[in-house]
Amino acid sequence: MKRAMTIAGSDSGGGAGIQADLKTFQELKVFGMSALTAVTAQNTLGVQAVFPMEVEAVAEQIQSVGEDIGVDALKTGMLFNAEIIETVAEKIKYFAWEKVVVDPVMIAKGGASLLQQEAVSALKDHLLPLCLVVTPNIPEAEVLTGMTILSHDDKKEAARRIHALGAKNVVIKGGHDLNTNESVDLLFNGADFEFFSVPRIETKNTHGTGCTFSAAITAQLAKGLTVYDAVSVAKEFIHAAIGNSLNIGQGHGPTNHWAFNREKGRLATWHG
Ligand SMILES: Nc1ncnc2c1ncn2[C@@H]1O[C@H](COP(=O)(O)OP(=O)(O)O)[C@@H](O)[C@H]1O
Ligand SMILES: Cc1ncc(COP(=O)(O)OP(=O)(O)O)c(N)n1
C-alpha cells in the first residue's frame, strides 16, 4: 500500500481542499493522510471565512505522519501565509521527501484569497526549489512569472520561467483559458514540452478541479509512475470528474471523484 499526504486547507463544502485530495487518493488506491493548514467555511457559492492553523500545529501533523507512517508522495494546496510555507519547506527537507507536488493555490473561484500576497515570494524562494511538480493555473502562473499568458507560446515562456525558479516539472493548467474549445495543459520538464489537450466540458460545476488534478498526480507518483504518466492519468481522472460533475449546491458544484473508476470499469487493484 503506497502512502500519499496532502498538506492543505479544509473545504467544509467537500469539493476542494483536503476533502477533494483524500477522495482522489482513495479512488486511486493509495493510503491518504493529511496535515491541515487552515479551516475554511466554504460552499459552492464561495468562501465565507478562513481560519489559518498555528504553524506548530502544521509542523506537528507533518512530523507525526513522517516519523511513523512515512510518505511515498505528497502534495501541498492552500498554505495561506509565509510562516506556514516556511514550516512545510523545513519538514520536506527534514524528511528528504522528493516526490513533492506543489499546487500553488492563491485565489478560490469565488475570488477569496487563499494565499496572502506577501507569501508569494516565500512560495517561490522556499517551496518551488523543493518540488518535483508544480501545477499553477493560468492566473497563478502569471503571478509567479509577472507575465501575461494569452497564447501557447506564452504558456511555454511562463513554464520556462517557473522551471528556472527550481521546480523540476511545470504543469500550466488550461482550465482558465476560455478562448478555446479545448482544455490544454502544458508539461515542461526543463527540456521538452508536452501538451495534454481534451475537449472543454461546458459546466459550471468545476469547484475543486485544481485540487483533484494535483492529488491525482500525487497518487500516481506515490505508486511509482513517471511524471509524464502521472500527469496523463490525472488528466483522464479530472476529465471524467468534470464530465460527470455534481449539480449540488447553488453555485459551482463539485467534480465527481467516482467517475474515473466507474467510466473505466476498473477493478480494485492496489496498483491500478
Ligand atoms: N471545463 C473544463 N473542461 C475540461 N477540463 C477542464 C475544465 N476546467 C478545468 N479543466 C481541467 O481541470 C484541471 C484543473 O485546471 P484549472 O481549472 O485551470 O485549475 P484550478 O482549479 O487550479 O483553477 C486541468 O487539467 C484543466 O485542464
Ligand atoms: C481549502 C481550499 N483549498 C483550495 C481551494 C482551491 O481549489 P481549486 O481546486 O483551485 O478550486 P476552485 O476554488 O477554483 O473551485 C479551495 N477552494 N479551498
UniProtKB/TrEMBL annotation:
Record-annotated Pyridoxamine kinase/Phosphomethylpyrimidine kinase domain positions: 11-256
Enzyme class, first EC level, given as a word: transferase
Catalyzed reactions: 4-amino-5-hydroxymethyl-2-methylpyrimidine + ATP = 4-amino-2-methyl-5-(phosphooxymethyl)pyrimidine + ADP + H(+); 4-amino-2-methyl-5-(phosphooxymethyl)pyrimidine + ATP = 4-amino-2-methyl-5-(diphosphooxymethyl)pyrimidine + ADP
Cited Pfam families: Phos_pyr_kin
GO molecular function term, any single one: ATP binding
EC number: 2.7.1.49, 2.7.4.7
Single biological process term from Gene Ontology: thiamine biosynthetic process
Pathway: Cofactor biosynthesis; thiamine diphosphate biosynthesis; 4-amino-2-methyl-5-diphosphomethylpyrimidine from 5-amino-1-(5-phospho-D-ribosyl)imidazole: step 3/3; Cofactor biosynthesis; thiamine diphosphate biosynthesis; 4-amino-2-methyl-5-diphosphomethylpyrimidine from 5-amino-1-(5-phospho-D-ribosyl)imidazole: step 2/3
Record protein name field: Hydroxymethylpyrimidine/phosphomethylpyrimidine kinase
